[in-house]
Design a protein that fits this description.
Length: 155
């Protein structure tokens, strides 16, 4: 699977020394992720991957992952990529995102990757890509651009 381009290293410095535990704890509290069976994959400053194995109850009428499920995991992947760079004592909230569906999400596994494009004091801009994996072959099925808000004082 192609990884999204990464910004310069200086832009990827976490402001929370305990960023990884903070992100993992937050992900564990997100009930929708456990409801649909999503798992946290690769995690690095400015980057997050979420993996979702196929289940029949996550599909639309043609048997593909539903677009709402696709958007759910890429929204969280983008959100957590941004959260890796936010200060301690804060939380993350999506302000907006735009999703383009490029191909049917037809696979045994859906993988969403979130990548920070710009991390500011209050707003963070991310990009997300979603791949449907079938028989080891990845199909790029969605792309997203997202704006996040840092919620200061919301640990």
């Amino acid at each position: 699977m192609p990884h999204t381009a990464r910004p310069a290293k200086h832009a990827l410095e976490p402001r929370n020394p305990d960023w990884e535990a903070t992100v993992r704890t937050s992900f564990a509290r997100q009930r929708v992720m456990s409801l649909i069976g999503a798992e946290l994959g690769a995690l690095a400053p400015g980057h997050c991957e979420i993996r979702l194995p196929f289940r029949d109850d996550l599909t639309q009428q043609n048997g593909y992952f539903h677009a709402g499920i696709t958007s759910t995991i890429v929204d969280s992947a983008g959100g957590y990529s941004g959260y890796t760079l936010m200060p301690a004592g804060s939380d993350v909230l999506t302000v907006e995102f735009k999703l383009n569906l490029l191909a049917p999400a037809d696979g045994d596994l859906l993988v969403a990757e979130g990548q920070v494009l710009k991390s500011g004091r209050n707003l963070v801009i991310t990009r997300g890509e979603v791949y449907a994996i079938r028989n080891g072959k990845a199909t790029h099925c969605a792309t997203m651009q997202q704006t996040l808000m840092t919620m200061h004082g919301k640990a």
